[in-house]
Write a structure and sequence with these properties.
Elements lengths: L1 H14 L2 H16 L3 H7 L4 E10 L5 E10 L7 E8 L4 H17 L5 E8 L7 H15 L8 E5 L5 H15 L23 H17 L7 E5 L3 H12 L3 E7 L2 E4 L6 H7 L16 H5 L5 E4 L18 E3 L8 H9 L3 E3 L1 H4 L2 H15 L5 H25 L4 H19 L4
Parallel strand pairs: 3-4, 3-5, 6-7, 6-9, 9-10, 10-11
Antiparallel strand pairs: 1-2, 2-4, 7-8
Helix pairs in contact: 2-3, 2-4, 2-15, 4-15, 5-6, 7-8, 7-13, 7-14, 13-14, 14-15
The protein binds nicotinamide-adenine-dinucleotide (NAD).
């Protein structure tokens, strides 16, 4: 009995292993495109993974040693690019998977980058401002040899923000004895940040929702929307949907969800949420995240964490369109179930690529020293994402594959070709 239970648990863990599931889809995508096995061998893991130890003297005088990672998936196309996550659950395997997703995103929106990702095992919710600054600077010192404006360009991710990017840019500039805004993106505007960066991921998700709604013959105005996660991605998205005339009937954070079939007061919730995207603690009548995902709605946007839609709840999803703002919220099995049920799933590597696209704009502006208006940024983003969505959608139809596999096929092709031209495979 015990052994059997252990086996179930192991197989569930294996199914939820984001690195393994990413590798499975990359393998399929390369097979469909006709690439030989050695291309998969090259692309299934990052080219480089650095593990670092970061000592920080905490406010109470004790020294704590934090573990950090930086993964560089593939730099055949250009420098690697990707965010830094501060979270207690960061693991080496997760950082590796996230770096591969970044490569795919850059391929899908056709940026001159490969993918990278970083993470530190820590809980910023329990750290002071001063401790966070020391940790951010210590991380940059630890990874400084492998990053830089033409090598690997970090950015924000879960629980990191423009202030952390500013400290990191300052530390790198000191080490490099030069002002280096192009070292990192997601900076405050006064330090060379780009207009539109903070809301770029949500803007990109909104553009994908508009395109997906057209394909499904649904009007966004009046559509019922549920958003899981009320952080950077989820809260801006809820606001954009609300402003577009959609009825946001459900939102959630790590502590629970809020539901109102008549529509939630998004402006009020935005005003009350804290900097970690928490708002539901202020309310008595909450629902669980599990209930939230299964609510009656037209559009469901997971914008929180991995493995939220699985084979256990995929049959109960009522939405007609699922757009993944989060990285890895839907398992491979659930992708198949949703696709078979006729639900249009817009995968993470496409839907959440607005962030890296505007990060690229920020880097271009830093390199040229000439800055664009918010309208220019939005116009450029819209053009790129509409084109990318339709590339993936058309490939899914012409090759009769699901949207995730189609997105991987588009995303992996550029780095496979670049690796081949360089003579690596
Ligand atoms: P964030 O830290 O700003 O917000 C995360 C939100 O998710 C918070 O509201 C938090 O309470 C909630 N959350 C955490 N654990 C949860 C749980 N177990 N159940 C339900 N909700 C939970 O993070 P973010 O930047 O908005 O990122 C969210 C997702 O979007 C991540 O998967 C991230 O990788 C992805 N993403 C973000 C960006 C970006 O530019 N911010 C870009 C691409 C992808």
């Amino acid at each position: 009995m015990v052994a059997e239970k252990g086996t179930d648990h192991d197989s569930q863990q294996e199914k939820n292993d984001v690195l393994k599931s990413t590798q499975t889809v990359i393998h399929k995508a390369l097979d469909k495109l006709g690439y030989p096995e050695e291309v998969y061998e090259l692309l299934k893991e990052p080219l480089r993974l650095l593990t670092v130890k970061i000592p920080v003297r905490m406010d109470d005088g004790a020294v704590r040693i934090f573990t950090g990672y930086r993964a560089q998936h593939n730099d055949a196309v250009g420098p690697t690019k990707g965010g830094i996550r501060f979270h207690p659950n960061v693991t080496e395997r997760e950082v590796k998977a996230l770096s591969i997703w970044m490569s795919l995103k850059c391929g899908i929106v056709d940026l001159p980058y490969g993918g990278g990702k970083g993470g530190i095992v820590c809980d910023p919710r329990n750290m002071s401002f001063r401790e966070l600054e020391k940790l951010s600077r210590g991380y940059v010192r630890a990874i400084s040899q492998i990053v830089g404006p033409t090598k690997d360009i970090p950015a924000p991710d879960v629980f990191t923000n423009s202030q952390i990017m500013a400290w990191m840019m300052d530390e790198y500039s000191r080490l490099d004895s030069s002002n280096s805004p192009g070292f990192i993106t997601g900076k405050p505007l006064v330090l060379g940040g780009s207009h539109g960066r903070e809301s770029a991921t949500a803007k990109g998700v909104t553009i994908c929702i508009n395109e997906a709604a057209k394909k499904k013959g649904i009007s966004v105005k009046g559509a019922r929307v549920v958003v899981q996660g009320f952080g950077n991605a989820g809260s801006f998205l809820a606001k954009f949907m609300h402003d577009a005339g959609a009825v946001v009937v459900g939102i959630s954070d790590a502590y629970g969800g809020l539901y109102d079939p008549k529509g939630l007061d998004i402006d009020y919730l935005l005003d009350r949420r804290d900097s970690f995207g928490t708002v539901t603690k202020l309310f008595k009548n909450t629902i669980t995240n599990k209930e939230l995902l299964e609510l009656e709605c037209d559009i469901l946007v997971p914008a929180a964490i991995e493995n939220q839609i699985t084979e256990e709840n995929a049959h109960n999803i009522k939405a007609k369109i699922v757009v993944e703002a989060a990285n890895g919220p839907t398992t491979i099995e659930a992708t198949q179930i949703l696709t078979e049920r006729g639900i249009l799933l817009v995968p993470d590597v496409l839907a959440s690529s607005g962030g890296v696209t505007v990060s690229y704009f920020e880097w271009v502006q830093n390199n040229q020293g000439y800055y664009w208006s918010e309208e220019e940024v939005e116009e450029k983003l819209e053009k790129i994402l509409v084109k990318s969505f339709n590339n993936v959608y058309e490939l899914a139809h012409s090759r009769r594959v699901d949207m995730r596999l189609a997105a991987y096929m588009v995303g992996v092709r550029k780095m496979a070709e670049a690796s081949r031209f360089r003579g690596w495979v």
